[in-house]
Amino acid sequence: MKEYTTEFIRNVALVGHQGAGKTSLTEALLFTAGNITRMGKVADGTTVSDYDEDEKARQISISTSLVPIEFQGHKINLLDTPGYTDFQGEVKNAVCVCDSVLVVVDAVSGPEVGTELAWQFADEFNQPILVVINKINRENASFARTLDALHVRFPEYKFIPVLLPIGEGSAFKGVVNVLTRKAYYGTGAACSEPPSEMLAQIEQAHLQLVEAAAEASNELVEKYFETQTLSFEEIRDGMRMAARDPNLKTVPVLVASGELNIGTYPLLEALLVYVSPPSQRRVALQSKPDEEVQFLDCPQSDEKPPAAFVFKTVFDRYVGTLSYFRVFSGKFESGHSYFNAEKGQDERLGQLLVMRGKEQMPVQVLHAGDIGTVAKLSATQTNDTLSSRERPFIIRKPTYPEPIYSVALEPKTQADSAKMGTVLAQLVQADPTLRWRQEPATRQTLLSGMGDIHIAVAIGRAERMGVSLNTSVPKVPYRETITKVSVASYRHKKQTGGAGQFGEVHLRIEPLADKEFEYVNEVVGGAIAQSFIPSIEKGVRSVMEQGVLAGCPIVNVKVAVFDGKMHPVDSKDIAFQIAGREAFKEAFLRAAPSLQEPIMNVRVVVPEENMGDVISDLTARRGRVLGTDTEKGRSVVTALVPLAEMQRYSNDLRSMTGGRGVYTMTFERYETVPNHIAQQVIAAYKAEMSQNS
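Predicted structure:
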């Protein structure tokens, strides 16, 4: 691949809802630009961007693919992102490192959940948005209806058609470029005069385009008022400025059929016209999430200090770790060393690569604004910044949603157990939306992500990295506590010849609201030596870790030891541990014990027609609906729901809404489990214990 300097680079994130046709559109753009000789198909597993085995098997995009398109002396770095909401972290990283966001919208379905997520991410990073209405060749497709739906869903934005369809559905045969007033029929680059019946529509759209461009600056407004027209360059620059202006929020609207490869040539031309070069990007710097954001102001160039952001890490079975990075400032060269300010160490870059799907093309230098890859970095991970030691930078990282789907992991063999922690750590480093942890309450290893497909893909990657894992539904981290004061005593006496064991403990337990545990010594008169008081606490704590009712940790308890007895010879540390443990158990069972369960704050966003079903379902899950709202034509339901009822909610919501619903879930508080459910939990625990004994 030839070398491209900053002004001849365009970075575009291709985003949208699952099934909108992003991958097929990418394939058509590559073919139209002459970068591939035949168009692959998702169903056949032959596309450039869906090259991973999981993607071929599932026929969905799972990770972001870098697909540089060489067209008219420019390089368009297209980042084809997944539409499946499980992989929204991939989308967010792509939006973060690009300079414009091209939102693909299905001409039949209109804007959907994935559209809104992409819009939200673009807004978060103040990225210009373009829309391409795809699949205009499908039955019931409508450019006007989709445009109206976008106006309803995103009322604060101004949508400006820059390509118009010639026909719709089976009659679709080409597009008109509103700026040049030329028509493109079929798959070629040849243009001609548009249909006469469209002339009025084209003139109206052209006027709307010129007026939108003129609004970008006072100079353009003045010229437009004077001459009633603007030049090609003025319209181009005006639209770029208007798209970046947070007050104007102007969105150019394109149209194409990736499946038929119609409209892709003018679409590529439009990307060169309406997407700004990376030199115009302002770069946000932030050492910590709560620190004030600073900026590298544009223009960016090779002469400025080097700064590159690693937005993706892939473990390749042949070359090892591949780190994808965007050069925000300066230039990066093969064989040179750069500084990782977060890790505090230098990284020597080996051979720089430009990826096209899985194809690797070596390059010597990447200029400001370009996107590339390097293998085998020693310390640098996803979301790290490489810069110079003299001028260290930390580029602002994206913030990611909390995981909503978890599985419990068990290694299949002892060898898997030894490697599991290392492999899980590598997976989490590569994908910031994955988390893994040891859950002390249930003594399980948990892997958490954005949904069942997300977790299944991660488990598959772990297996390819040499670790086989069994998965199961996690146990709910219940807690045990008490609701009233009680007193108990226990004497431990053991005489088996030789030295014996003796210890007697009298203790009181009472509920504690503001602390998990408090231990008090109220013994007077030397009934128990001071040296044995910690032994009693040790015995009590052992019970609190393991629980009494259902094997869950005990919390919010105050324990006061107020009396006991010793033996001058047989009293030992172990004797008072046992006596404290058994006395605590007896007191606990007398103190009206109860189970507590985690309650989650759940926010569900669904189409309006699904709201009733969602509310009924949440209520059936013992949820308490806090309220409903409407946002951009979609219904929002907020509720408090026990975690025990939400373990596999993502699957059920997807089924209930046809994949059009999304939700977030955060921990709110612990509450007492209803008695009939608590008895079921306790019975299940006892059955498990008897089976294992």
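Summary: The longest strand covers residues 594-607.
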